[in-house]
Task: structure prediction
Amino acid sequence: MRHRERAETRVRPIQNIVIVGGGTAGWLTAGIIAARHKARMKTGFTVTLVESPNVPIIGVGEGTWPTLRSTLEKIGVSETSFFRECDSAFKQGAKFARWTTGADDDAYYHPLMLPQGFTELNLVPHWLRGGGDRSFCDAVCPQGILCEDGLAPKMITTPEYQAVANYAYHLDAGKFAPFLQKHCTEKLGVRHVLADVQTVNRAENGDIASLSTTQSGDIPGDLFIDCSGFNSLLLGKTLGVPFKDCSDVLFCDTALAVQVPYDMPDAPMTSHTIGTAQKAGWIWDIGLPTRRGVGYVYSSRHSSEDAAQEELARYVGPAIKNLSVRKIPIRSGHRETFWKNNCVAVGLAAGFLEPLEASAIVLVELSAKLIAEQMPANREVMDLVAARFNDVTAYRWGRIIDFLKLHYVLTKRTDSQFWIDNVDPATVPDRLKNLLLLWKYRSPWFFDEFDRLEEVFPAASYQYVLYGMGFRSEVDRADCDGNESMATRLMEENAIVTRQMRSKLPRNRELIRKIREYGLQPI
Amino acid sequence: MTSIVVLNSQAHRDLRVQAAASAQLGDNERFVQVAVSEFAALVAHYPILFAKNSDTGAFFVGAMLGFNPGENLFLGAGDKGQDSYRPLNLRRQPFFVSGTDLAIDLDSPRVGRGEALFDGNGEPTCYLQSIVAILGELRPGLEMTKLFIETLLAHKLIEPITVDLGFDDGSRLKLIDLYTIDRNALKDLPDATVLDLFRRGYLYLIYLMIASLKQIPVLAQKKNRRLHESAG
Result:
């Protein structure tokens, strides 16, 4: 009989999910899991989010990826409400200024649309053969021009979550978490417990058995998700998973953030993130309907705080006198492993990287989706799921670090030690070094390792950054033969699409105003 | 240009308005906004479809009178007027409601000759009374239509429809940005919702809209006849 009992405990289904932390990561994870497993709630599946009433939300990451559109749609949120309640706006990509030479006219776009006909033909060799003088982005995609024109990526008649030009969002993270909380608790059956975790109780096998809280007693669970932020209460502090620092690759370790009001409420609003390189890092600039979010991410090894404050003040202008600048220490890196025993970390508890490509929220989405889709049926199979999760997640962090470093390693700037140190081969990950060597003779494309089902950055992203920063692959000219007419057709089609979009798309500010006033239709 | 002013029995005592349907006077519309109260009369002639207001994105219901911009296939040749039920929104021209007042667009080509608005005593003529009646039906009718649309959206009962037509002169036409009732979603509605829609009179309107789709090929034939007439 005893033998049978043990077998039964081993196959006990994973039913009670406990999430610790009520920031963006916590609520997004709760929403994704609860929506995916909604049908199981009838038979005892629960999602509980424990949030300290005393710990403030960090609220990083005001830029997102287009993935957030399908994520929000799947969890059942109205895009109109999201625009109205989270002070959200469109993001069509990023403009990187002064990264290559540091000159005034030095800028390129990393748009969110793929190059025209991307799945049919690689246009890079054809663009290079044509001399490569024209901006690669403009030759293959309308979006850089749409951004320059200040146009929105859709129209008021375009249904919710659908795009004319691919888009993501800029949002007020301080409003996003409460917005998700309301939806999760009211529509998705997530239990919200406001309580401080006092002790984390362990089982014999090292698993987390329950949380003892000051206000709500013990909270048992089958799977614990650590969304406790930099604190990493469960995975880091309790299970002792070490942090893997990557400041040897990505030097920035401090951010100075400031909210800049518009001169006039109807001032033009950009629909892209502007990342402007500075002496010891770069300044982000994103447009929300009510204000701009601006911040200087810099390396304290390369700049004093005073010098950084001065650079930020120069960027913002005289308005900065009346604004409060918030200093946020950042620690680039991630946990060595992300899922241990019955605990998995999501969000800042898993790691953080400078927001150069807005990777924070997308990593939360991808991790939560993977947990939701691969939800272990019982404890017996959890370690298998955990191993796969760790493999995929470590791969993703590695790829993001490579891709962020790519922006630095292609610079020609030598005007400060920060840029000189950034091109030091000792600071470049081997995989990126190897890829750069390969790309001397061919362009990034399918078969180039970027073949995972949910690849963070597709080959197109590498193309936009490489050729935007003046990198030139020495492609064999004969490689283009046979496909020239198709390449010409695709580039002509791009010119036509660009013209059509420019003539029909409204101004970004104007569409945001209309969405707030009239709303978008669900179909 | 428009110059909309509140109607005044003194200032506009001698004003006359041409009431008949005419392409030159503004009936050259291929898609006219209609109200739910008109559906029964409309279904005998026109496809009734949803479209979006290009300025606000909001859905409205319209009757399809033609295919190309400015094409109203129901206008008789030589300005013989509309040969079937004429939607209220065409009949009301050039009058509007401004707040609680009746207003008129003095720049409309309809203004000048035609029907008198006031008689010798400054009292509204039968014609003006009929206009008041039309606007009295149209305004609340459009409000009711808005509620009808909101209910359909809440139940996810609206879906896009693409109208792809070939005409006898070899031309093809693809009409997009039009919407109709999602019949599969309708079939999947829970019983309680169906009963609610029925009690509110919406089920009747829904089926009128579905039935009106059969007017699309009829309208295409009408267009073909015009093509043959103009060719012959």
Notes: The interface with chain A takes residues 52-59, 153, 156, 158-160, 177, 179 of chain B (CB under 8 Å).
